[in-house]
């Protein structure tokens, strides 16, 4: 008996690939403009496909979000890898914060995805885990070099991203300018010489009880 013509081969058929690409393009644009809680039906409408087609390609919102932002997350992880190779750990530390904040301020969806845990997306979480571990090493090196204040806590990085994500500017140019200014001010405050010898400046309040992945997952709205 001949094999059924409806069976999908390992490589997606051309029409299926086309639909998938349209869905990803639509989701990327909507997430960037409106965040992750865009209804799945709105993504389907913008892509020009039915909701059933969208769910065949991406059974959950999580699978769609993590596919859309996988490349950007890999870029972040690569940025950390490059910083670890920099002989100046403070320059590497600053470069990571500056580049990730610039990416986040231009894309509301990625900004939210970056701070949201996706427990069922193993590859996405592995990439983010690699970036987080690398940044922890970079932080330790910058402290040991006497450039980063000793009382810098990992939750302070979450505060930086939260503040940066709150920028609301009338244009892309203004948003980037605001992000650069904000990040420069914050990085200046992280310098060890600002904290004083051995961090003996005015004590800071205790670290905030924030994890890097503190945002609630928006769920599976239709």
Question: What attributes characterize this protein structure?
Answer:
disordered N terminus, Arc Repressor Mutant, subunit A, mainly alpha, disordered C terminus, 0% strand, 11 helices, Tetracycline Repressor, domain 2, 2 domains, 222 residues
What is the rounded Rg?
21 Å
Q: What count of domains describes the coordinates?
A: 2
Secondary structure: number of strands? 0
Mean pLDDT: 88
Shape: elongated
Major β-sheet annotation: none
Q: Which percent range fits the helix content?
A: 55-70%
- CATH architectural designation of the largest domain: Orthogonal Bundle
CATH topology description of the largest domain: Tetracycline Repressor, domain 2
Number of helices: 11
Strand content: under 5%
Distance between the termini: 41 Å
Assembly level? single chain
Task: Detail the poorly predicted runs.
Answer: 1-9, 218-222
CATH homologous group name of the largest domain: Tetracycline Repressor, domain 2
Helix/strand-derived category reads: mainly alpha
The first-level CATH class name of the largest domain: Mainly Alpha
The succession of helices and strands, N to C, reads HHHHHHHHHHH
């Amino acid at each position: 008996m001949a094999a059924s013509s409806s069976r999908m081969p390992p490589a997606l058929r051309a029409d299926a690939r086309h639909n998938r690409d349209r869905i990803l393009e639509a989701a990327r644009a909507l997430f960037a403009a409106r965040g992750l809680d865009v209804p799945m039906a709105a993504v389907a409408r913008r892509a020009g496909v039915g909701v059933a087609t969208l769910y065949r390609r991406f059974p959950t919102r999580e699978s769609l979000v993590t596919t859309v932002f996988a490349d950007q997350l890999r870029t972040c992880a690569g940025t950390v890898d490059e910083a670890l190779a920099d002989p100046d750990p403070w320059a590497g530390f600053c470069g990571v914060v500056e580049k990730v904040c610039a990416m986040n301020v231009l894309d509301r969806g990625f900004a939210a995805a970056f701070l949201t845990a996706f427990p069922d997306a193993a590859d996405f979480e592995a990439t983010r885990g690699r970036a987080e571990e690398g940044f922890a090493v970079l932080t330790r090196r910058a402290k040991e070099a006497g450039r980063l204040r000793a009382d810098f806590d990992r939750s302070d990085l979450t505060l930086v991203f939260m503040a940066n994500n709150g920028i609301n500017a009338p244009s892309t140019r203004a948003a980037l300018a605001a992000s650069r200014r904000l990040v420069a001010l914050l990085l200046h405050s992280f310098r060890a010489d600002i904290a004083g010898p051995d961090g003996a400046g005015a004590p800071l309040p205790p670290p905030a009880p924030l994890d890097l992945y503190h945002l609630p997952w928006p769920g599976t709205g239709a």
